UniProtKB/TrEMBL annotation:
Family listed: Belongs to the 'GDSL' lipolytic enzyme family. Platelet-activating factor acetylhydrolase IB beta/gamma subunits subfamily.
InterPro entries, per the entry: SGNH_hydro, SGNH_hydro_sf
Gene3D superfamilies: SGNH hydrolase
Protein name: SGNH hydrolase-type esterase domain-containing protein
Pfam families for the chain: Lipase_GDSL_2
SGNH hydrolase-type esterase domain sequence ranges: 56-220
Amino acid sequence: MKSLTLSLSIILSISLQAADRPAHSAVTPEPRSGGWMKRHESFNQRVAKGNVDLVFIGDSITHGWEGRGKEVWAKYYAKRNAVNLGIGGDRTQHVLWRLDNGNIKDISPKVAVVMIGTNNSGDGRNTAEEMIDGVTAVIDKLRAKLPKTKILLLDIFPRGQRINEQRGKILQVNQVLSRLNARPHVTFLRIGQNFVSPDGSIAKDIMPDFLHLTPEGYEIWAKSIEPTLARLMGE
């Protein structure tokens, strides 16, 4: 049977510093157009008002806190001066561009929750090594721009009804990303397994398309990070 991705021994040997490798798409800041830019600019307008203690940074799964996750967000984060900086379809390169162009300008939140990378994992997009570089670049940029902010980096959530090549790739990327936990002000937290049944499958009542979350899925997310988040927030 064809190996799902790089062997664990190889993936663990990948350096988290990509300086010796040529630049690639996952680490090259890039904007998008259309509605994406409008949402990006709305983030800039919100953070310019200040009073930001908590930010969530990511793609459509994070964006979904404003949709299926709205009630869960209100329950856990409404009183925490939280701002959702998620945009559907984003990859690491798009987040890097946003961080350079106003999304975190002149703020110093207590905590930044980061979950990004699943959109880099598709066929013809980025290798496992490049995904690691991309997520690491996001963390490096946050540390440089928000030196007082504590970063809660989540594993890239599982996708696909059952284990498949893409999910295997994500699992191995997460194994390496866990090493970022050793960095100052960075906490890596695995919660992806909380969306998966004992037999390895993902139920439709948690992820109806085996990627995006239902209200129940957002409740699992919130409960899974709450003890760690409360500690990092100093509560």
